[in-house]
Specification:
alpha/beta; Spore Coat Polysaccharide Biosynthesis Protein SpsA, Chain A; 14% strand
């Protein structure tokens, strides 16, 4: 039976949302395949692993791999990588939260040479379609199958950032939380090594670290897939009909806020995920002070994007100016 590898990367903080995501995959997956969910993690406890493993079925199996074990497989190991990717504002998720896990996806091709193709998913999602249908999309020679990051199209400062900071334009800028990966081609073009080389040389200031590097490095060699595979809540836009995957990106989290688009799907799959009570309690305790801090962080992110767009030696200046080559150049 054909095996479909699905990768997640988490730390302990995101374990409850991972459980909901996996539960949704299981309930909508075709029984014609065997699914291997591979969780690359940092500091996830044995107790948490065992709790999530209770969701396993005959057709969906799980493997939890500590990132330290992964480092040992990579060139230079943890010392080389940790010395380059440190806690700095340009390396933070949403510009406020540093975790090495956001970079793990860049090393998946090298860590799993037995696979020529795979799916990477963020854990703040629910999958409503059959994930095998995404996997079976023919990528041809493209490095990635992607969906555009539509969450930023209504914010002029962020459009300025991706146009003049990242240098790819909003019509090409994709979200790295949902990726169909041509692992064979990504190994051939040395994604992981090239990322470290470029990161070490330029230390780009950016607001979406892994995402901006992937957009800059892979530009021109990605395939846009059905946008319903990365449906994001957007208060300024009506809901999309028949979504295949909901991605609760940035601060649009139903476990933090009321009134989030598509929140009913999250709570449907949360109910028997093993974390229902935990999630309800978390939401009930999410304070007005925390909500205000979120809004301040979003404002800071937008302001930083505007600043970076006008800065020298940003992604656009370096890659569009020929100072650095893209993966397939």
């Amino acid at each position: 039976m054909k095996e479909i590898p699905v990768f997640f990367t988490i730390d302990e903080n995101y374990a409850p949302y991972l459980a909901v995501a996996i539960n949704s995959i299981i309930k909508n997956a075709s029984r014609d395949y065997q699914y291997r969910i591979i969780v690359l993690h940092q500091d996830v406890t044995d107790e948490t692993v065992q709790k999530i493993r209770k969701l396993e079925t005959d057709w969906v199996k799980m493997e939890f791999i500590p990132m330290q074990q992964c480092y040992e497989q990579l060139w230079g190991g943890a010392e080389r990588i940790d010395s380059q990717i440190t806690d700095h504002i340009s390396n933070r998720l949403r510009a406020d939260y540093f975790t090495m896990t956001i970079y793990f996806r860049l090393f998946i091709p090298d860590l799993f040479p037995q696979y020529d193709k795979g799916i990477y998913l963020d854990s703040d999602i629910v999958v409503l379609g059959d994930i095998s249908e995404m996997y079976n999309i023919d990528l041809g020679d493209n490095l990635l199958g992607v969906c555009l990051d539509l969450s930023i199209h209504d914010t002029s400062e962020l459009v300025h950032y991706i146009t003049d900071g990242v240098g790819v334009g909003k019509e090409n800028y994709f979200n790295s939380g949902i990726l169909l990966m041509n692992l064979k081609r990504l190994r051939e073009v040395r994604l992981g090594e090239r990322f470290l080389e470029v990161h070490k040389k330029w230390h780009f200031d950016c607001i979406a670290p892994d995402q901006d590097y992937l957009n800059a490095l892979c530009f021109g060699h990605v395939m846009k897939i059905d946008p319903r595979w990365d449906t994001m809540p957007n208060r300024k836009q009506p809901e999309i009909r028949n979504p295949l995957l909901i991605h609760y990106n940035l601060f649009e989290k139903p476990w933090m806020y009321d009134g989030i688009q598509y929140s009913e799907y999250f709570w449907d799959y949360a109910y028997d995920s093993g974390y229902w009570d935990w999630l309800l309690e978390f939401k009930s305790k999410y304070s007005k002070e925390q909500q205000q801090a979120d809004m301040e962080c979003l404002a800071n992110l937008v302001a930083r994007g505007e600043m970076i767009a006008s800065a020298p030696d940003n992604f656009r200046e370096v890659f569009n100016g020929g100072k650095e080559k893209r993966l397939c150049d």
